[in-house]
Automatic annotation (TrEMBL):
Substrate binds at residue 199. It is an enzyme of class 2 (transferase). Residues 12-266 form the GCVT N-terminal domain. This is Aminomethyltransferase. Residues 289-367 form the Aminomethyltransferase C-terminal domain. GO terms for biological process: glycine decarboxylation via glycine cleavage system; methylation. Its EC number is 2.1.2.10. Belongs to the GcvT family. The glycine cleavage system catalyzes the degradation of glycine. The keyword Methyltransferase applies. GO terms for molecular function: aminomethyltransferase activity; methyltransferase activity; transaminase activity. It catalyses: N(6)-[(R)-S(8)-aminomethyldihydrolipoyl]-L-lysyl-[protein] + (6S)-5,6,7,8-tetrahydrofolate = N(6)-[(R)-dihydrolipoyl]-L-lysyl-[protein] + (6R)-5,10-methylene-5,6,7,8-tetrahydrofolate + NH4(+). Keywords: Aminotransferase, Methyltransferase, Transferase.
Length: 371
């Protein structure tokens, strides 16, 4: 079996644009085209175009599709209206997070589950396994879709020039079928940048034509192609968790400060319910650690795995860190002992190669767009 990375339908196009490519979760993906900083600023102030075809689409259909998803996931999926989407998680029996997901209800008995690239097979296997007692089918649709995102304040205007779909009426976390530049697409108002934007699910054979049409329509507004590197700094500024960093199987949604996604009020049992009820109680009482933001007082950049210190003692761990193009200083997300987790807590630092660099504890997110 070949270990060569998988290529998206836009691979040749990325290379023709001079992209720096990287292996990400078994896919060859563009890391950057020009400079991460320029791409980041384009998304914050104008618009950026992303290839996200490495994400894992799984279709769930059948009379008991909703019941299956309510059992398999922590959210109330049966309560999602057709045409809407929900951020949720799939957990193990012990409450550990297997992945965070977006679930789109495409029709009464049809859902699309979008998993992270690194976890797509795990999620597919778990859903298939959990579907055993339900009248529902789980289908691997990773090869059925290419996913192109246009993100940033100019994105509604750019996309609007290429479609008759009612973008004005399309709420955040909603999706509707439409045609973009003559290409049939599921148009979703979702994203991972902290900006307004859209994700377009299309057949791979249409991906190049759609990318070119968006590039052309976006040129006057300053749209640029963007790689995974700026996607990471954008989501970090927006305080959005990344699986493998802020979310892991050793953490429950409550440990991650995302207990709101767990819906105990839904009918019937769901995988991990008992463990999550216990986790909710622990988190409510006095959680040992909390996810916080850290802003550098100096210039040195914290990285995942570095130790957070206070008074010479280890009090936490950095989960994500990077220079912030928007704020102009290094930022980190970290799990920190509750005693040091309040915004404004003094004396907190990060151990960067033996030096305790001073950091300010802040509430997440670091950045919120003006609406």
């Amino acid at each position: 079996m070949s270990n060569a990375p998988r290529l998206t339908a836009l691979d040749a196009l990325h290379r023709s644009l001079g992209a720096t490519m990287t292996d990400f979760a078994g896919w060859d993906m563009p890391l950057r085209y020009t400079s991460e900083r320029d791409e980041h600023h384009a998304v914050r102030t104008r618009a950026g175009l992303f290839d996200l075809s490495h994400m894992g689409e799984i279709t769930v259909t059948g009379p008991q599709a909703a019941a299956l998803l309510d059992y398999a996931l922590v959210g109330n999926i049966g309560g999602v209206a057709t045409g809407r989407a929900r951020y949720t998680m799939i957990c193990r029996e012990d409450g550990g997070i297997l992945d965070d997901l977006i679930v789109y209800r495409l029709a009464d008995t049809e859902y699309m589950v979008v998993a992270n690239a690194s976890n797509a097979q795990t999620v597919l296997d778990a859903l298939t396994d959990r579907a055993a007692d339900f009248d529902a089918a789980v289908r691997d649709d990773r090869d059925a879709y290419a996913l192109i995102a246009v993100q940033g304040p100019e994105s509604p205007g750019i996309l609007g020039s290429l479609t008759d779909a009612d973008l004005e009426g399309l709420k955040y976390y909603a999706g509707l079928p439409g045609t973009v530049a003559g290409v049939p697409a599921l148009i979703a108002r979702t994203g991972y940048t902290g900006e307004d934007g859209f994700e377009l699910f299309v057949e791979p054979r249409h991906a190049q034509a759609l990318w070119r049409a968006l590039t052309e329509a976006g040129a006057p507004a300053g749209l640029v192609p963007c790689g995974l590197s700026c996607r990471d700094t954008l989501r970090l500024e927006a305080g959005m968790p990344l699986y493998g960093h802020e979310l892991t199987t050793s953490l429950t949604p409550f440990d991650a400060g995302l207990g709101r996604v767990v819906k105990f009020e839904k009918e019937g049992d769901f995988v991990g319910r008992k463990a999550l009820e216990a986790a909710a109680e622990r988190a409510g009482a006095n959680p040992p650690r909390r996810l916080v933001g850290l802003v550098a007082r100096g210039r040195r950049v914290p990285r995942a795995g570095m130790t957070v210190v206070a008074g010479g003692e280890a009090v936490g761990e950095v989960t994500s860190g990077a220079p912030s193009p928007t704020l102009g200083k290094p930022l980190a997300m970290a799990y920190v002992d509750t005693a040091h987790a309040e915004p404004g807590t003094e004396g907190v630092g990060v151990d960067i190669r033996g030096t305790h660099e001073p950091y300010e504890v802040v509430a997440l997110p670091f950045y919120r767009r003006r609406k």
